[in-house]
Amino acid sequence: MNMSMTQEIIIAGFGGQGVLSMGQIIAYAAMEGKKEVSWMPSYGPEMRGGTANCTVIVSDSRISSPIITKFDTAIVLNQPSIEKFENAVKPGGILIYEKSTILRPPSRKDIEVLAIPGLEEAQKLKSKQVANMILLGAFLEMRPIVKLEHVISALHSVLPPHRQHLIPLNEQALARGKELAIQVATEMVVR
To answer: How many Å separate Cα 64 from the centre of its chain?
Structure first.
C-alpha cells in the first residue's frame, strides 16, 4: 500500500528569529530528497520585531494548493504566534515552541506539544543565532520528513558565504534539538 506522505508546516515568530530561513532549509532539504515542496513567506507590516511566518508543504505527490489554513505541525517562536496558530494545528498534529518566549503555553490536549529551550541551549553553544536550528532539530526528530544530510546540504545553499563557517555549529544545534525532543517527549509520557 503506497501511503502518500504530506506534511504541512507553519513556522512563526518575530522577524529576525530565523523563521523564514528555517522554512527555506526544510524546503531545500526536501528538494534534495526529490520531494514536492511549497514554501510561502508572509510578513507582518513591520519586518524586524513584527511577526513573520512561512508555510512549508513537503509531499511525495503533487501539491494541489499551497494555501492552507490547517497544519500538521506548527513551530512557534513567540507568544503572538501561539495565539494565532495554536488552533490551526490539526488534531493529532504537533506544536513545537521556544520555551523562553512563551508566557502562556498552548492548552490543547488533542495535539502533541513540545516546549524546547532552544535559546537557552543555543547560549550554551555560544551562539543565540542557532536557537532556530535547535527547534528544527527537535521537529525533525518528531517528524523525520527530510534526511539530516539533506538539511546539512541545504545549509550550504541557504547560508551566505560569510556564514558558511557556522555550518558545524548548526549541525551541533540540530543534533541537540533532536536530543531535547526525545527528552521532552519522554517526560510528557512519564507525567
So the answer is: 22
Dump pLDDT digits (tens) for 134-161: 999 999 999 999 999 999 999 998 888 9
pTM over 0.90: yes
**CATH number of the domain to which 131 belongs:** 3.40.920.10
Residue 183 lies in a domain: yes
Q: Where are the alpha helices (DSSP H) in 12-130?
A: 19-32, 79-85, 118-124
Chain centroid to CA 175: 14
Q: Where are the alpha helices (DSSP H) in the chain?
A: 19-32, 79-85, 118-124, 131-142, 148-158, 167-190
Residue pLDDT, tens place only, 47-69: 555 778 999 999 999 988 877 88
User: Cell for 175?
Assistant: 543534533
In a domain, 1, yes or no: no
Q: Are 141 and 181 in contact (CB under 8 A)?
A: yes
- Separation of alpha carbons 19 and 146, rounded Å: 18
The total of other beta-carbon atoms located within 10 Å of residue 34's CB is 8
**Whole-number Cα distances in Å, 6 to 63, 67, 91:** 9, 14, 15
